[in-house]
Specification:
Keywords: Metal-binding, Oxidoreductase. This is Multicopper oxidase family protein. This protein has 3 helices and 31 strands. It is mainly β. The chain folds into 3 domains: 121 residues, Sandwich (Immunoglobulin-like), CATH 2.60.40.420; 152 residues, Cupredoxins -  blue copper proteins (Immunoglobulin-like, Sandwich), CATH 2.60.40; 130 residues, Sandwich (Immunoglobulin-like). Strands 20, 21, 23, 25, 26, 27 and 29 form a 7-stranded mixed sheet that branches. Strand 25 and strand 26 form a beta hairpin. It is globular. The chain binds CU-O-CU linkage and copper (II) ion (CU) (2 copies). The site of CU-O-CU linkage has 9 residues, from strand 5.
């Protein structure tokens, strides 16, 4: 779906669907019958109207991840609930200076988010470039993971897996098992990679083939940077430039140690359970054969991203992401929560305001982690500039909308609460943690 004359209008329906994954038919949930859902292509300044019809048997809603749109419109509203059988009309407008890049959409109904994403509800949003980037072709690559049982249903995670953040056994790209991409030597491709996994961190490496990082989450780097590998957190997007070199190359997701539950609940069964510490996963093959093509012109440099350092900071806060014994709530699976997932000791309450900020202000947030597991922290609407990480100052201005706060570590970010007022949220993008309570509200007034 592409916008015309500044407007994109479309219908989206969430419904159960049998989806072919590899050689199996799997009972999943889909937007308009496909996993991923349709790609939405818009430009800065566009208005988007979506009629969302919910044909699931559970409540849902729609969130446009990473878009800088008003929380007073409904495009970014995680508080809306669209009940089964209902239709909801969304409308929002991107500011004329909205950063280009790769974004995505997914449901955000608290308590159902991890289940609905793991079942297949997500899709890409592409915001058009300001100036064109010379490439032979562009590909949108949405990575997700799932575990299928012997009868073709998705396995439901037990409480332990939810606390760890579920990771599917099968990692797929656009719903395909290890797809094969073909190119000729010398061709330049732009890959827009979205990590739509509910919990899995992706450390991407393309063997025998160089890749350049063009964008991480939003906007683009001033100059594309050669990278041997890149970590894509749940919710992050990267744009990679890949220049075809003769041969067969594999894009792999290497293991990432994102911590575990060591020491929680007095140790015991918790000790030693570390998700993500498994073998590398092959995501796709990049097959470069045929006669070489002429080299494309170089990628033009972009203006350096904004740097908030040097602007007056009007507010400072500390937010601690923690896990503690005795979460009182019922888990979405129906069992009693054994562990609470909290921010500053509190579980999510949509009626409480956790961060009350002045519209237009720049704030410095210190995100700390008092637990033995990493938490990739996401703030809606307003992107974060990472200024300090692991005790070190970050040299270049680096903007992301999901930032990893490592186990027992901390990260300092600057946020400009520009353009909009209204209420939104920040949360761990390990979506099981979000559903278990690790989410807070922010209000710009
Ligand atoms: Cu990708 Cu609050 O979500
Ligand atoms: Cu989001
Ligand atoms: Cu988390």
């Amino acid at each position: 779906f592409t916008s015309h004359d500044g407007l994109l209008e479309l219908d989206l329906e969430t419904a159960p669907e049998r989806i072919r994954i590899g050689d199996r038919e799997v009972s999943m949930l889909a937007f308009n019958g496909s996993v991923p859902g349709p790609t939405l292509r818009v430009a800065p300044g566009d208005t988007v109207r979506v009629r969302l019809r919910n044909s699931l048997d559970a409540p849902t809603n729609l969130h446009v991840h990473g878009l800088h749109v008003s929380p007073e419109d409904n495009g970014d509203n995680p508080f809306i609930s669209v009940d089964p059988g209902q239709t909801f009309a969304y409308e929002f407008t991107l500011p004329a200076d909205h950063p280009p890049g790769t974004y995505w959409y997914h449901p955000h109904r608290h308590g159902y988010v991890a289940d609905q994403l793991a079942a297949g509800l997500f899709g890409a949003i592409v915001v058009a470039d300001l100036e064109s980037i010379p490439v032979t072709r562009e590909r949108v690559l949405v990575v997700s993971d799932l575990t299928v049982d012997s009868s073709g249903n998705l396995a439901s995670p037990d409480l332990m897996e939810q606390m760890m953040g579920r990771e599917g056994e099968l990692v797929v790209v656009n719903g395909q098992v290890r797809p094969r991409l073909a190119a000729a030597p010398g061709e330049r491709e732009r890959w827009r990679v979205i990590n739509a996994c509910t919990s899995r961190f992706l450390r991407l490496q393309l063997n025998g083939q160089s890749m350049q990082l063009l964008s991480l989450d939003l906007g683009r780097l001033a100059v594309p940077r050669e990278v041997p590998e890149v970590v894509v957190l749940p919710g992050n997007r990267v744009e990679l430039l890949v220049e075809g070199q003769e041969g067969s190359h594999t894009l792999a997701a290497l293991p990432v140690d994102r911590g575990g539950m060591d020491g929680m609940m007095g140790g015991g069964m918790m000790n030693g359970s570390r998700p993500g510490a498994s073998a590398p996963v092959e995501l796709l093959t990049f097959q470069v054969t045929g006669s070489p093509v002429d080299a494309l012109p170089p990628v033009p440099a972009a203006p350096a991203p904004r740097d908030l350092r040097g602007e007056p900071v009007e507010g400072r806060r500390r937010l601690d992401f923690g896990m503690a014994m005795g979460g009182g709530r019922m888990g979405p699976g129906g069992g009693p929560g054994m562990m609470a997932f909290t921010i500053n000791g509190q579980e999510f309450d949509p009626d409480r305001i956790d961060a009350d900020v002045a519209g237009g202000a720049v704030e410095e947030w210190t995100l700390t982690n008092s637990s033995p597991m990493d938490h990739p922290v996401h703030l809606h609407v307003w992107p974060m500039q990472i200024v300090e990480e692991g005790g070190r100052t970050v040299a270049e201005p680096r903007w992301q909308d999901v930032v990893n706060v490592p186990a027992f570590g901390e990260v300092k970010v600057l946020i400009a609460f520009d353009d909009f007022t209204g209420r939104s949220v920040f949360h761990c993008h390990i979506l099981d943690h979000e559903d278990l309570g690790m989410m807070g509200t922010v209000r710009a007034r």
